[in-house]
Amino acid sequence: MSAQPAFTRADPDERRQSLIEATARVLGEKGAAGISVRAICAEAGVSPGLLRHYFAGVSDAIAEAYRWTGQRIGEALDAAVAEAGTDPRARILAYLTASFRPPIATPDLLASYIAFWSLTRSDPAVAAVRAEVYGDYRVRLEALLAQWRPDLADPPLTAIALTALIDGLWLELSLGDAPFTAAQASALAERWLDSLCG
Predict the structure, then answer these.
(1) Does the residue 38 lie in any domain?
(2) Domain for residue 22, yes or no?
(3) pLDDT digits over 141-180, tens only?
(4) CATH number at residue 66
(5) Is residue 168 part of a domain?
(6) Burial of 167 (0-12, 13-18, 19+ CB in 10 A)
């Protein structure tokens, strides 16, 4: 991927965002082993000293890239739910099945996530963002479940069970050549939802 043009008079927020996005791209292309101040700044088209102006170090930039990636996924999920209309069950299904198509089910996003996951055991800042991103996903899913089935006995446990299925299907679809289609994954998610909720 070609480097972005250098920022000479860009807004500080734009420069910081450029570095966040460059960090995510480098992680996706080179993995955790290939990440460095030099690699991030070369991808962003800026001098290496600029990263330390906006972040405490590479770990901080990675954590922010993870948070930004999680926000992008959240926006795609919210858009899917909004498109589903007002029926509570349709809204849950939209939330679950949005993970089976772009922009969520893509090899690029998977590559970035593999790098993020590989750092969660060794980098507390990245681990904290992982907990934040997954916690947000489950809280939103629990809210959708409560709207559909306010009588549900254990919404948190149901959300965990649904998330586990969605993650596995998303992983296979994102890797490519999955032994099932996105439509079949959606059908499995619907069956699992109905099985868990009675």
Answers:
(1) no
(2) no
(3) 999 999 999 999 999 999 999 999 999 999 999 999 999 9
(4) 1.10.357.10
(5) yes
(6) middle
**Tokens at 28, concatenated:** 């996706």
What residue type is 174 in one-letter code? S
CB 95 within 8 A of CB 77: yes
> What contacts 71, CB < 8 A, 6 or more positions away?
none
- Cis peptide bond N-terminal to 103, omega within 30: yes
The structural domain count of the chain equals: 1
Pair of tokens at residue 35 = 């990440």
Which residues, at least 6 apart from 28, have a Cβ–Cβ distance to it below 8 Å? Answer: 108, 109, 111, 112, 115
- Reported as a single tens digit per residue, the pLDDT across 61-84 is 999 999 999 999 999 999 999 999
Q: What is the maximum span of the chain, computed from C-alpha positions, in angstroms?
A: 59
